[in-house]
Amino acid sequence: MIVAVIDAELIGRKKHRFPNLACMKISAYNKKLGNDVVLKLDYNSLKKFDKVYISKVFLDTEIPKEILDLPNVKYGGTGFFYDKAEPLPYEVEHIMPDYTLYNDWVSEQLSNGVKKRDLKYYTDYSIGFTTRGCFRKCQFCVNQNYNKVEKHSPLEEFLDDNREKICLLDDNILGYKDWKVIIQKLKATNKPFQYKQGMDLRIMTDEKAELLVSCKYDEDYIFAFDDINDKDIIEIKLKLWKKYNTTKGQNTKLYVFCGFDRNNKWDLEFWKQDIIDTFERIKILMKYNCKPYIMRFEKYQESRYRGMYINIAQWCNQPRFFSQMSYQQMCDKDNERKGGNSATKRYNDLFREENPEIANKYFDLRLKDVVR
């Protein structure tokens, strides 16, 4: 058969810098069966293929609805079904990914001027899950169908010896009973590795911290600070973490999830308090010389303070801004660069006018003044 594999994010999003693992596994399985596989980069002429597989990760990635009704099209992934997405068949899920699937696309991107480092996950990394699931059952999370962290696959199942690095997508590796065995196996490869989804800092221990910092870790250690109500335990664990991770530079990042109302009210009072809680978490992370990375729940776009979420993400998610200037200084610089009256300034001015006490408390915070 002639099979088309479509990574919907490549078509539906302006910038996408991470391969779709399901697509690579589907490709590998079909090639094993002797089928010809094409990475399709549009939705044209799909009827000429015997089978078309479409996968997407994000709910807001747009796909023409009529495409999904074609008899030769099969689609899946969290972007379609969120926590109700069906798993891949066992024989597909547990096959070595086809890391060559994106080769032609990568070559085209490079010829169009995209920097090699922006394509690193397509070229340099073995990617997979050693465990799946989490016991937290956070309201906003896709992992609603698990009660614990479970073993998923051995490292050898997705490890390509020709690739320099390893990227793990585990949901909560530190919550797995045999976490130590897995991390020791990763360490033994002598390859740099990273946990991309973020690790659960709340269950950090001396033993876990000591082992992690002894590894050849790739880029930032990533954790999460999703809820201001966790501030006490987060601070305790950051102190523990810093006892072992003694580097003077910023190599620890925490995802700061915002814009999600756990009481499902979504009123102006919530949006105001959520901005406060976001700044408060940023301030706590500043104390420990950690980088916040703002993750916005999609409903933020309905907020009166939508622009503030954009501004805060612009400040925090670019380390050169966050490390060198306050939120207010970032806004002023951006406004100056754009010749005055920028959207950044308008968003900032609206919030400051309506909430001067919040602005006075947080807008001038600078990393160098807060870090211990």
CATH topology call of the domain at 1-104: Rossmann fold
- Report low-confidence residues grouped into runs of 5 or more: none
Biggest sheet record:
4 strands, parallel
Strand % is: 5-15%
Distinct helical segment count = 16
The total beta strand count reads: 12
Q: Which architecture of the domain at 1-104 would the CATH scheme give at its second level?
A: 3-Layer(aba) Sandwich
Structural category: alpha/beta
The sequence of SSEs as H and E is EHHEEEHHHHEEEEHEHEHEHEHHHHHH
N-to-C terminal Cα separation, in Å? 62 Å
Averaging pLDDT over every residue, what do you get?
95
Widest β-sheet, arrangement of strands: 2-1-3-4
Helix content: 25-40%
The dominant shape is: globular
Radius of gyration: 22 Å
What's the CATH class label of the domain at 1-104? Alpha Beta
Written account of the structure:
The chain has a domain of 104 residues: Rossmann fold, CATH 3.40.50. With 372 residues, the protein is an alpha/beta fold. The chain has a 4-stranded parallel beta sheet. It has a 3-stranded parallel beta sheet with strand order 5-8-9. The protein starts with a strand and ends with a helix. The relative contact order is 0.07. It is globular and about 65 Å long. β11, α10 and β12 form a beta-alpha-beta unit. Helix content is 38%, strand content 14%. The longest helix is centred in the C-terminal third of the chain and has 20 residues.
Question: Topology, pairings included?
Answer:
Layout: E1 2-7, H1 8-12, H2 21-32, E2 36-39, E3 51-55, E4 73-76, H3 78-81, H4 90-93, H5 103-111, H6 120-123, E5 125-128, E6 131-132, E7 150-151, E8 165-168, H7 179-188, E9 193-195, H8 206-214, E10 221-224, H9 231-244, E11 252-258, H10 268-287, E12 291-296, H11 306-316, H12 319-324, H13 327-337, H14 343-354, H15 356-362, H16 367-370
Parallel strand pairs: 1-2, 1-3, 3-4, 5-8, 8-9, 10-11, 11-12
Antiparallel strand pairs: 6-7
